[in-house]
Every structure is written in C-alpha cells, then in structure tokens.
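ping. complex inputs:
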Amino acid sequence: MQTNNIAVIGGGAAGLTAAISAAMHGADVTVYEGGERCGKKILMTGNGRCNLTNTNAAPEHYHGGNVSFMNDTISAFWVDETLEFFADMGLITKEEEDGRVYPYVNQAAAVLDILRLRLDALGVKTVTAFEVQSVRKSKDGFIITAYDKKQAKAGKVIIATGGKAAPQTGSKGGGYDILKSLGHTITKTRPSLVQIKTEPDIVRKLKGIKADAKVSIDGHSEKGEVLFTDYGLSGIAVFSITAYLTNQKTISLDLMSGISEDTLYEMLCMRAAQNPNITFENFLVGMVNKRIGQVILKQIGIEPLSRRAATLTDSDIKKLARIIKNWQFKIEGTMSWNNAQVTKGGALTTEFNPKTMESRLESGVYAAGEVLDIDGDCGGYNLQWAWSSGYIAGKSAAGK
Ligand SMILES: Cc1cc2nc3c(=O)[nH]c(=O)nc-3n(C[C@H](O)[C@H](O)[C@H](O)COP(=O)(O)OP(=O)(O)OC[C@H]3O[C@@H](n4cnc5c(N)ncnc54)[C@H](O)[C@@H]3O)c2cc1C
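pong. complex structure:
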C-alpha cells in the first residue's frame, strides 16, 4: 500500500472535485465512498436539474460560526473559476432567474457524468461500499479503516463526507466522528432548507393549498410559494427562510406584500361598503385564496361565514388587514434530516487553514464541503461551496 497518495473520503460534490483537483495537480488519488456509487446526492439537486451555482454567490448568502473563513476561497476559486472548470470538462451551463445556474441539458446526471469522465481520464481510483469508520495517524501517513474492517493507507486525507442532510444519499454524519477523533470540534448541527412544523390547527385546514407570500423570520424575508401541509409550512419561500432559523418562535406570512397595511385597510373598508350583502364566505374572494380567506376570518373571530359584510366593525377590518399582512404561526420545529437539503453547523472552521482547507490540528488532514460549518441559502450556494472548498483542498493536498 502506498503512503504518498491522497485518500478522499466521500464521493459527493466536494470529494469528487477535490479528487479531480488533486489529480490535475499531479497526485495519486483514491476516493473512498460509503455508498454503492458516488454522487447520489448530486442527482437529486435542483429537482433533478442541479442548480450548480449562483452568479450572486457572496458571503451574505452563507451562514456559520465564521463566514469570513470563505474570503480566501472566494478569491482563489469561486463562481467564474467553477464555471470554467465545468466548461473545460465539457459541461455547457445556462443562467436562469436570480442568478441560478443549471446545466444546459437540465439534467443533474450530466454534472455527475462529467465529473466521472474526468476522474477516469485522470486515473483517479474509486472504491465504493467503503464506509470509513476511522482515520488514524501512522508513522508514514494515515490508516483508514472501514466499518467492515477493510483498511487502506494514505499520505494525506481529505474528509468530504458531507453533513447529515438527506442521509438516504450516504451523508449520515460519520465524518464528524472521524474529525472529532482527530481532535476537531463539531458545532451543534441541525437541518436547514427544510419544511417548518407549526401548530397544526390552522395549517391542517389548508392542506395542499399554495399561496404566494412574503415569509419572515426575525427581520429576514423571502418571497415566493408557500405550501400548507398537515404538519406545517413548505414551499420554496419556507425552505429558503430556514437558512436564517435559529431559535425563533414564530414565522409570519404577508399575503399581500405589494401593498401597505393602511392601503389594505382602506381597500377592505371600500369592499365592505360597496358589497354590504356579500357573506364572509366570499368577502375576500379575488384578494386572497378563498379557503385561506375563510380560515383567517374564523381565526380572528369574524364568523359565522354566513354573516354579511355590512356587520363588519372598524375594529374587525383593522384586524383583518393586520392578519393578511402579518399572519403568524408558532414554530414547533423543522422536519427531519431526511427532508433537509443541507446541514447547519459542522466542523469548526477556525481549526482549518482557509487558504488550503488543511487542519490546523493534524497536518495532512483536509476537509471540504458541507462537513464544515458553512451552509448557504437555497439557490446553488451550497454546491458552490462544495466545488470551491473541494477544489482548494485537492490542489493544496497535491501541492505539499
Ligand atoms: C434534495 C436536495 C436538493 C439539493 N439541491 C441543491 C441545489 O440545487 N443546489 C445546491 O447548491 N445545493 C443543493 N443541495 C445541497 C447540496 O447538494 C449539498 O450541500 C452538497 O451536495 C454537499 O456536498 P458534499 O460533497 O459536501 O456532501 P455530500 O453531497 O453529502 O457527499 C458526501 C459523500 O460522502 C459519503 N460519505 C459519508 N460518510 C462517509 C464515510 N464515513 N465513508 C465514506 N463515504 C462517506 C456519502 O455517501 C456521500 O456520497 C441539495 C440537497 C438535497 C438533499
């Protein structure tokens, strides 16, 4: 067994990029992947289309204990370099709304195929069904041991095992144990880009209904689709806002974000004056979804639905304008790791050199991708972090 080689642990976005980068820079590289095949998660990204980056990628779209860790990554290998990297391998991409970049063929499989072809061309070895349990320092490098006791040796090791999100794709958090055993600190982890569980009473009545809304948590807002479910709230705007979720207790929806509460109040007064005989059942039709309208009227005690608009008081109309603009739901948590797209938290970045991704605690150990305490917003930001940190880790490991 050689010890002047590089072992990449985890064959996801970060690991495959690290392997290509290390091989491009002259190293002998082996990828050890726990699953039966590499890149399973890549195939699921962007609803099967792979939103591989975002032209707006900048630190304000990322979260973690120390986001400034990314500054060196951004200057060394960021969106332009990533697009060039993929273009060199033959992937044609296109930019869509909000800077989101996809493969021109709209297939995540194309991204994975392109990476695999380059790995083969560079002679990178891939060992699948090798789920690493431990990495131990030896006299001339590292001994890598799998759960089934198979062993391998390497001169340097790149940990690219992802976090805990979507464990069905292989990322089950094993990388954290490996890094902990090497002395690293793992910050508290929790699911992000995930559905929110709320008090069920209201949402359950609206199960399956979609609405466009501005969703807010503690001063952060996202506009887009919200889907009501029997456990809480889903939809792209809700997914996106969870990137900002810490310990907040409420999430609020603005169902008419284009107009102010005062204007809405005047519109509602006029509506009631012009249609005094309309029942509450239909009072909000044409303004918000009919069923949502009925549910919010009932929630603020404006009932029964057979009552007529003429009976609305000024205080009723004020309450109605208020709830349409600021409909609050008590947060009871998030859905599980199985539903999450990304992990918040991870390996403490201050324990790594941001220029190389090498551990400051154990020379020859590198980390890249979601295993580190950096997570991005929804929209291509997480894969960008995986490609960039992977590329830098691979290049640095090959270079020393
Ligand atoms: C449904 C879904 C859709 C998404 N869509 C997008 C999107 O469109 N755009 C975007 O930017 N981001 C998206 N993301 C997030 C993005 O996919 C991840 O942030 C990114 O893939 C992380 O890359 P990674 O290589 O760090 O980890 P992973 O992709 O999780 O790869 C880690 C790999 O390591 C392997 N592994 C784990 N432990 C071990 C071990 N002990 N030994 C050996 N191998 C191990 C795993 O099997 C896995 O193959 C999405 C995520 C999900 C779940």
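The chain has two domains: 6-191+339-399, 195-334.
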